[in-house]
Specification:
2 copies of one chain form a homodimer.
Chain A: H1 4-18, H2 22-42, H3 49-55, H4 70-94, H5 99-115, H6 132-158, H7 167-184, H8 193-208
Helix pairs in contact in A: 1-6, 2-3, 2-4, 4-5, 4-6, 5-6, 5-8, 6-7
The structure holds a DNA duplex (30 and 30 nucleotides).
Chain lengths: 210, 210
DNA sequence: GGCCTATTTTAATCAACATTAAAATCCATC
DNA sequence: GATGGATTTTAATGTTGATTAAAATAGGCC
């Protein structure tokens, strides 16, 4: 499924970051978080590189020391978001208990990443305008994530902890609810991250539970 | 809450469309649907007016006979989406039965609009880059819609048809799931609109039901 | 102090669209 | 088949913001 071009893209990026020191990594990560916040708050077309740079006390041109292009900046934001999701999924899968328990564990971990200190996570609303290789990569990860979640649901149904339902649809519904969270949740807002975590998992427990 | 500038914007738009005939209205509506499809599939920044125009067998310049700017095109797409939501909400509120019944009725109507013949509905991911007046208008409608939905949930809790829960959170979760649907649902795809409607409402019934 | 690398800035450049103005075409009606 | 409004095209124009190249600065290390 993966084209030669994609692999090339991937390795290019690895090279790009490979030799840089830890200072670099730190700033690069900060860039990604700031950019994600901008994209979520001001929209993709609404945020210029200058906007992002200003928040980092930098010139727009300076960003090109960290990313090759705006497109790549978006891509890396999405990649970061996908990575956080994947990590949460791995933890959920590794958790003990019934299918329901593990599904909820995953959700809780993901919510923690979304609302917690890991900083703002980019909503993936501009996937289509990524260049082919990057788009394929993100879509692939995204697809895998969905499949993993559906698998958890299926296991839950099998072991009787989750009520029988259309796995695909249910997965999509919950994923949608998750993905939409950055739209309405603001750290430091009226609702705390802890509350969201508790209430959201509670919601899913009821939605899924047998 | 509404500024003078906003009102001005609104009336300007009314004037713009007021005198035109029914042919015009028809084509204008088609434009909005095609544009919504483009924005959803190719992203906002990924769709040029030329793209939209091509699908209508028109030149990009011709679109300016129907809209004043790209920004306004987006705004009208969002407005159309909001209107469909509002209509569904009105029908749901007017339906009989318990709070749960009415909430589900609203959802069903909204799903029908989203997946049915009314054509593709724009995902509102670029609200921030609307100009102030338009942004305020859309946000206001959106907020109202959420409030209405939360009210339905509250009524359901009051009459015992919906299990006690945090109304705001639950509303946000379900709205998120709804708003995300255009991301994965493709008319003519593997899953029919009817199936989505049935399964999604079923999901919400379980999530909400007492 | 001098050197080397990492980081950032200044000052252009450049391209992609959005947008506009004027002209052309289409179409119903007289 | 001529007239007038509605609709669309052709051909520029403009502006924004991404991108680049070369120069400047900062800081660790000898």
């Amino acid at each position: 499924m993966t084209h030669r071009a994609d692999l090339q893209d991937m390795s290019e990026i690895k090279q790009w970051h490979a030799d840089k020191g830890p200072q670099y990594r730190l700033k690069h990560d900060r860039l990604l978080r700031v950019a994600a916040a901008c994209f979520n708050q001001k929209g993709y077309s609404g945020t210029s590189l200058k906007d992002v740079a200003r928040q980092l006390d930098l010139t727009d041109a300076a960003l090109y020391y960290y990313v090759r292009s705006k497109e790549e900046l978006v891509y890396q934001c999405y990649r970061r978001a996908a990575d956080l999701g994947t990590r949460a999924m791995a933890r959920g899968q590794a958790a003990g208990g019934s299918g329901l328990d593990r599904a909820l564990s995953y959700l809780d971990h993901h919510l923690e990443a979304l609302c917690g200190e890991e900083g703002p996570v980019a909503i993936m609303s501009e996937i289509p305008s990524l260049k082919p290789g990057h788009k394929a990569d993100i879509l692939e990860r995204s697809r895998q994530h969905s499949l993993d979640f559906e698998a958890l649901i299926a296991e839950g149904i099998a072991d009787g902890s989750i009520a029988p339902c259309d796995v695909r649809m249910t997965g999509n519904a919950i994923m949608g609810a998750i993905n939409w969270i950055p739209k309405w949740f603001r750290p430091g807002g009226p609702v705390s991250a802890t509350q969201v975590r508790a209430q959201f998992t509670e919601f899913c427990r009821r939605a899924l539970g047998a």
